[in-house]
């Protein structure tokens, strides 16, 4: 699938609209997780496209939190993004700030992992290692069930994402944890290089 822009152009666009390290780290994390899932699920040929959708999915959030996904529908096409890229970005807020429904498996993975990567990242910060590389699935499941922990990460959205994909919740938790374990060092290196 065509993105309509290179990774470099996408990064420049992201930086134009985002200054907060927290948002940049989230973008890089979801980019890496989406690439991992593309390879995991047999979409290796489209891995760059999946990754770019992850990188840009929150492009408008820092500057336009009240128009999240709506502004992206203007910003992305104006920057040359393909319809497929714009659709993927807009539908990740389905039911929350967008009525564009995830259709492609990639879009469902993006919807399902966006909040979950936030939950895993918050859980990692609580660990002595400050890392998810030594986090077990059982520990993540406990954090998922603890509604007071990282309450901003919607458990309903994560559950809905697993349902869209036709996966058990545990499968989604397990795979996303694997994805974050495998990519954490690369994301940290990219953040350190900013
Ligand atoms: Fe996000």
Q: Which compounds are bound in this model?
A: fe (ii) ion
Which spans have pLDDT < 50 for at least 5 consecutive residues? none
| Strand segment tally | 0
The 3D shape can be described as globular
Quickly count the helices.
9
Helix-strand string: HHHHHHHHH
Describe the biggest sheet?
none
In whole angstroms, how far apart are the ends?
29 Å
Q: How much helicity do the residues have?
A: 55-70%
Number of domains: 1
Q: How much β-strand is present in the residues? A: under 5%
Let me know the average pLDDT: 97
Radius of gyration: 15 Å
Question: What is the structural class?
Answer: mainly alpha
Explain the layout of strands and helices.
Blueprint: H1 7-17, H2 21-40, H3 47-56, H4 72-78, H5 83-91, H6 105-125, H7 137-145, H8 155-165, H9 169-192
Helix pairs in contact: 1-3, 2-3, 2-6, 2-9, 3-5, 4-5, 6-8, 6-9
In short:
By secondary structure, the chain is mainly α. It has nine helices and no strands.
Characteristics of this structure?
globular; mainly alpha; 0% strand; 194 residues; 63% helix; binds fe (ii) ion; single chain
